[in-house]
Amino acid sequence: MVSRNERSRTLMASCLSVLFVSMSALPCAAQICPEVSNVSCTPSLGIGTVAISWDTGGFGYTSVEIYRDGVYLADVTGLSFYNDSSHSGGVISYAIVAQCGFEGSIVGCAVDFSSWFRRGDVNDDGATNIADAVYLLGHLFAVGSPNAINCRDAADANDDAAINISDAVTILNSLFVQASQPLPPPYYDCGTDPTAADGIDCLIQQACPPPP
Question: Of the residues 61, 96, 97, 195, which has the fewest C-beta atoms closer than 10 A?
Fold first, then answer.
């Protein structure tokens, strides 16, 4: 037997597919079930969590659910916030589906965790210097190293779609060998990755927050 939630999610599927193309506030059915308002999706840069909040205006919805990239995430009925820490980075689209019986509405928002970084800033302190090469070598070779790398694009200093000792050498050369070329962009300032399709991504770089 198909449950009410399963029927409801099926009814919402077509509207969700439209939402993730337009990312605009879109009523799915009759206005008898109003959209939630003041929807906000905010990346918490230090911990990689997306804080999602909304306002029900005191309306007694039958259910309120969150979808991420078109896939059911959680039932948040009675709540006005949700923290998503299970995402995998990149551009993330969320939809808040509010239902009143078989009527419903959808409103969405999106965040981009992966667009902005500074190449060579491996330790995420806002600069590229010898400390980044040391940090990367510790990550690669020190047993039990606490040197986590959340932005692999930043650690891929030579932009060859791999993270290894050559990246540390590239950083050192760019700093101390006069004839060396600067690191591939984005280097001097935070920016986007011109080789975004190389399979190396950036979950988060705190020193380069996404633009508003």
Answer: 195
